[in-house]
Every structure is written in C-alpha cells, then in structure tokens.
Design goal:
The chain has about 190 residues and is an alpha+beta fold. It is built from four helices and nine strands, in the order αββαββββαβββα. The two termini are about 25 Å apart. The model has no long low-confidence stretch (mean pLDDT about 80).
C-alpha cells in the first residue's frame, strides 16, 4: 500500500539509527530466495519452506472486502456475498496472498470470485478501488489509506495473514549483512 513499505522498512532495517544505510528495494511477484538471489532480507506473504532460512513473522494484517463511497453511491451496496457476481471485483495477486478467484472468509472458507481486474500491484488495486472501479479484497495496513473506503461484510469477510521477514545463513558473513541481522535481532526482541 502507498507509503507503508517505507515505514515498515525504517523499523525493520533501522534507518532511524543509521543514516548511512543504503537500501535497494525490489518489488516483485516472483519468489525470492535470500541465498539463491543474493539478497539480505526478503519481506513476503509466502511462508518459507526452506529449513536453511531464518524467518520470523514481522507483522500480521487483515484482508477486508472494501469499496469506495463513490462506487457505492453509483452502484449500490451488494446485499449478499452471492450478489458480488453483479459487481466488478478487483483482485490482488501475490505469492502467499489469497488466490484472486477465491476471497477468504473469517472461517477459512472462501467465496468464488470472477474478478474483472487482477493486478500484481497492491498500490494499483488500492487505487482502482479507491476511485470507484469496483469492489476489492485488500490487506488493511495503514488506516489513513482506508479513510475513504467502506468495509463490506466485516463479520464474514476478514482473513488474517502474516508477513514474513526472511534471511539466509549466508547473510552472516558481510559487514552489511551483519548490520542488517543485528538490527533485525533488536527489532525482534522489541516486538516479540
């Protein structure tokens, strides 16, 4: 979502502690592996399966079904989950995120969706919903980005998902990686 990545990375990487830290941010819908792809840290929805990696849950977020007031005024509010078939739906596709054709419910069941738009950009999905292109199922991270959106079916359509911070054992050798791992260790101890 707009702005949230920078705020989370400031906390995770400790930019407030060291203004000489330089980051290269890669946004991708591909599965990155810290060792194979030679990166220090991966922030992902996907739970790592490689036992040689170091991973922790950095944060959890809730996915919610939302629509803008502009959309609801023009098209009306769906009266039931089944009525979603009469509305354009916008899905976000990312590794580890809910499948774009099945939106997850509180009870871990799902409802089938036929999205009109599927995007790999969370920012694009948020903007499409915000400006009235349809109803979306999006992760709720920063309240200020949701001020103009209304949550639909809040008792039924809510799913909690972890965000993982992953690094590899290889990242213990370079001074930069040692610094990143030390900052992560401090962050974990303050937030666990």
């Amino acid at each position: 979502p707009p702005g949230s990545v920078v705020e989370q990375l400031k906390i995770l990487i400790g930019l407030e502690e060291n203004s000489h830290t330089h980051l290269e941010l890669m946004f991708t819908d591909k599965l990155l592996h810290p060792v194979r792809d030679d990166v220090d840290v991966v922030i992902t929805y996907e739970r790592p399966t490689d036992t040689g990696l170091i991973s922790r849950v950095a944060h959890t977020m809730q996915w919610r079904m939302v629509a803008s007031r502009v959309y609801l005024e023009a098209h009306g509010r769906p009266e039931s989950l089944e009525a979603l078939s009469e509305h354009p739906c916008i899905s976000y596709r990312a590794l580890g995120a809910p499948y774009p054709h099945h939106w997850l419910r509180v009870n871990n069941t799902s409802i089938p969706i036929s999205p009109h738009i599927i995007t790999t950009s969370l920012h694009a999905a948020h903007q499409l919903v915000r400006y009235g292109a349809g109803i979306g199922y999006l992760p709720f991270l920063l309240p200020e980005h949701w001020a103009d959106l209304e949550v639909l079916f809040p008792e039924e359509m809510c799913w909690t998902q972890p965000i993982y911070v992953v690094s590899g054992e290889h990242s213990r050798s370079s001074p930069r990686s040692q610094y990143v791992n030390a900052v992560l260790a401090r962050w974990y101890s303050r937030n666990s």
